[in-house]
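Revision sheet: structure tokens.
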Amino acid sequence: MLIDQSLAEFAAATSERTSTPGGGAVAAYLATLGAALGAMAARFTSGREEFAEAEPRLAAAIADLDGLRVALLELVDADAEAFGGVTDAYALPHATPDDKAARRAAIQVALGGAMEVPLQTCRTAVGGLDVLATLCNTVHKHLASDVAVGALALAAGYRAAWINVVINLSSMKDAERIAAVRAEGEEMERHVAEREQSILAAVMDVIS
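Predicted:
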């Protein structure tokens, strides 16, 4: 499993002439680190007397971000597995008309699965940004920059995952599904841009 590799091994594996890990796995890991940084900032703030009023918010954020981190980490391997399904589908025999029809159908199913994984990464990254937005003025000021970096990582993970959604959509034939996903992506992009900007502005106010 990719997530069992060391950081150095994962980076080396990504650099190899192999299909996986690719952009989708890297996107999920970027977002994983963003959620992890937010949880760290909340943990370091939790338990301090001067932040006693914020303790319920901190506890909720830690629980949410830990859950999102685990979910995003699972998507690293899920992306590699889904891409393998696409490769397998393209490798199916296509000697006869029946073979070709079965292969075309299998490719469409595999592409849909490969698209769903980065789409889930997008959705999960958005959830992480929503949680980090609650921490800007809650964590200790010395940890506010970590919240900002976490937000940047989540936003980058979102945008990297969305590129992988789009490339799979480009080969899919289900027009209704394509339109629905693109509409969802437009809404998520607006939300991510607003969250990213507001978090960075709030953090700059705290640390400047």
